[in-house]
Amino acid sequence: MKRRSLILISLVLALITSACGDGGGAGTTGTVTTSVETTETTGAATTGAETTMTGTPSEDTPIKIGIIADLTGPFTTYGNSLARSAQLAIKEVNEAGGIDGRQVEVIVEDIQTDVAATVDKARKLVQSDNVDLVMGPIGSDANDAAYAEVVEAGGKLLFYTETYEGGKCNELYFSFGAVPAQQVRPLIPILQEAYGTNAMLFGADYVWPRRSFEIAKPIIDENEGTVVSELYLPLIAEDFSELVQEVRDTQPDYIFSLYPAVWGAALTALNDAGLLDSVGIGTIFLGDPDFAGIADLAEGSYTALPFFTVADAPGVQPFLEAYAAEFGEGEIPSGGEGVGAYNAVWLYKQAVEQAGSTDPAAVAEAMVGQTYEGPTGTVEMMPSHHLKQTINLVQAQDGQYVLVDSFENMDPEEDCSL
Amino acid sequence: MSILTVSGISKTFGGLNAVANVDLEVERGEMHGLIGANGAGKSTLLHLIYGRIRPEGGSILFKGTDVTLLPVTARARMGMGLVFQIISVFDGLSVDENLLLGALPKDSTRSDPVDQTEVEKVIDLVDLRAVRDRSAGKLGHGEKQRLEIGMVLLTRPALLLLDEPTSGMTAAESRRTAGLLQTLRSEGAIDAAIVVEHNIEFIRLVADRVTVMHRGSVLADGPIGEVQNDPAVQASFLGRLH
Amino acid sequence: MPDERAVTPRSFWSSGGKAFRNAELILLALLVALPVASRDAFFVDRIGRFLLLAVFALTVDLIWGYGAMFTFGQAAFFGGAGYAVGILSTREAGILPLPLGLTILGAVAASALLALGISYFTFARRGGLRGVEFAVVTLAVSVALERLANAGGPVTGGQNGILMTYRLGPVHRGHGFYLLAATILVITYLGLKRYLLSRPGLVFRGIGQNEERVELLGYDVPRIKRWTFVLSGAIAGLAGSLFYLHEGIVSPAAVGVGSSTLVLLWVVLGGKGTLIGPIVGAVALPYLTARLSGTLLDTWLVVVGVILVVVILLIPAGIFGFLNRERAS
Hints:
By secondary structure, chain A is an alpha/beta fold.
């Protein structure tokens, strides 16, 4: 008995130690990716002829970008989208000579859709790996945790690429995903035109829906619409009778939904109650991968997000092709964080080269005003540290998303004076 | 002086009279047998006495106090010590620790020291000194029973309740158990006791008086010699058994 | 002198005696060596976190490993304390926010009171709940607390939780934090060991093995279970307060079923009813997860799963299960 246990303990210890050397600063190295093909960067590709900026540390030391993404757990789709898009961009940057002649090394950590893991991994990237930039996470709660670790405690740059409620304002924090005003402005008029002016605001009970609705109300007002109902249910509810009743009682023309987690279940409840056909739907979260799962129920819905595969900007197809080539036929990024991460990397490159260093404060200053021609169009980092970008609007028709319109240069409208 | 007086006790289960209007009296120093066929109600009566179930009618007086509605633990503290039908000791603890649990003060607000001499006396009485450090789970069936008896004895019960002590035993083992009870009695370790049993031979060896139950009622009550010769008893029960 | 002898619960150490002592010594050596050998503040800090998780696991081992009180809700005390600290230290209302020391005290008190409440509701009543029923109640408490945390609006921070404002001063990070965590772990371990080897501890262990027998010997079983349960809640509360202060954030997952189940896994893996086992489980498994989820990105979940299955199949009693001689049938 004892011997067996000792053998097993040794096995476990061996596994731990083999998993990666000692727990020291070496940490995880190299570009560990989820891709089918290898994306090992070749440091030798650096050309000595590249002009270097004054004061840059040795050309040979790589720039480290850490990614905290949910690769397991409920947010796997988005985490993968984030990590892969970032890795794709980094690969392209490296192939083009790196940032200022320096190759980029990426360290990916799975935060398992768990706040505690986010804290741990963010801390690891900042303290142990000493990265120059942290990208991610996905969830708002994880974002709060990462923000505290990376920006407040760590003094490093945090690039958040997910659709969120906005409101975070810090010198070292930059958001690349969509924020409510960008998505709501184009969406409301279209919903009103399609369905009518009586809006029901339906969301999960947490900060993103709540704040989004606060931003939406004046916009609905400006469009001379009326909010006939505002309802919040727990993020993962099992019973939607309150929703059904509310729709029956207030008879909205359309439901503006921020209920991301189990939206299919909510639609089913409305459908079972025979209400789905008589009410329009608009969302700001149902990207391509999520839509695929509930295409029938989502028939007719409008969605506003930065990226869809049917978006028609010239950069979209090449982006999709490169993504598929890297990660497998049929793999696509999701609606917000994917293209956000991609843009973020290129903007970072530009900012570092302009600043002439990777010092967080210097890069932060250089980030503001950076523009880039991304897959969905021009993006511009505003003084509020949120991204002006193209918002695409689609409608679900016959089980597919069809592009309704593209809205370029949508201002994030965030109040953040730094 | 009666240590236990059960008067008119009744209990029905789903319409069936498990125990119907039963009287039972146990004197100090008396070993009282409780016998009857399966379904006669003796187990139910025992459960009523020690408090696992509540009666529908009647009363139970223990040491002069009405305990009819008292919970199990309270009756145990008052001095009822039950030895289970299916041997119940602490398998993971040593023999010593098992006995200690019998001897420790139950009401922990008192911090009386454990009378170690008593523990030593009991361990010899039940003949487990040689295995005192062994896990109770590793003991043989007979040893376990002796351990349980020893453990309960250390609670200094005024009334010991033995629930079918010979179940699962061979004739030889039963005789040994009977011998143990006799010894414990003569050593003054057992005061009064109720022994619920099927095994008449066993009862003959250990009991002074016996109550015979049949279908929930008392059929006969008295010294075993008398009861044995009661024709009604013979006809309905004793005759059938042997 | 004879009395002394009777009180030394032989079986706790008997056949496992030497092995136990050896295991203790090895663990102590590792505990001391680690911060000395490693200059990497992050690594030491990380292990420090796991040491507080080990305290959490010890409280489960106490009531489940020794008292047979299987619980799906211990995170209510560990995570709940995190919330108590968060609320008491960041919310503004009346006397709030409280200074750091009082918030920790308040959190421990809150955990203890919660445990007391649960125990009155479950096993302290006549015909109290045991076994499966108790487990189900603790499960319900877990679910309810997580819902409450999510729906608590400005009080609990909803889904995003509460960001801590206090830091633990010089013991907030790195070697200092490790020292704090290690101290709490050692004190808890020694304290629990002491308790289990004492007379009340013996009675408690008896309850774990054969509750009815203990009852029929005349002990007030509900009372003993209640106070041990409250003790486990208070200790978990202390560890939880420090853990979440160190984390910097507490969110609904902290009090949920997931957390409660995870700690059960550590205890089972390490070997329940051994104290040593749960400590090892609570450090090894989170550490394995943290490392592999950064290196084997595609497959770590499968790898960890396989390891767990293999270990449990080969050694159902847990890695250190052999130390527990009290495994009743």
